[in-house]
Design a protein that fits this description.
Layout (H helix, E strand, L loop, with lengths): L3 E2 L2 H9 L8 E2 L149
Parallel strand pairs: 1-2
Length: about 180
Amino acid sequence: MKMQKLSAEQLLGQYAEGKRNFDAVDLSENNLFQADLAEINLSGSVLRQAYLPYGNLSQANLYKTQLQDAELGDIQLYQANLSEANLSGANLSRANLRHANLQGANLQKANLQGADLYNADLSNADLSNADLSRANLEKAKLTKAQLAGCNLFRSRLADLSEAECDRTTISPEGY
């Protein structure tokens, strides 16, 4: 089955007409600056290097979505399903990820500086070499999360008791 390639204009037009189900579409490298796509289903879709800062994807289904190197700064991902998504190298600085499902997500080398991960589920997520400095991790679930090389400097209220840290993990205190 060939993946349908959609332009930003096509996606926004169909969304405006009420369509929400866009599973397995290719939106790579599209400019979706400030796009309001709440409750959209993009599961299994490809958004590599997509430009989505200040967008709204709250309550979106992004299960197994490919978001490598995507620009997602200041995005709203409140209650979004990002389980098993690939967000390696993505910029999620200051993103709202409150109550988001990030189980098994690949967040290697992702920029999560100042992100709000209140009550987010990061169990089994790979956060190796990710930057979580100044992130809010209050009530975030980090069971078996991989934190090798992860920068947690000045992150808030992180419970690392069940996370997998090593000597390369930079703690909230900076060591």
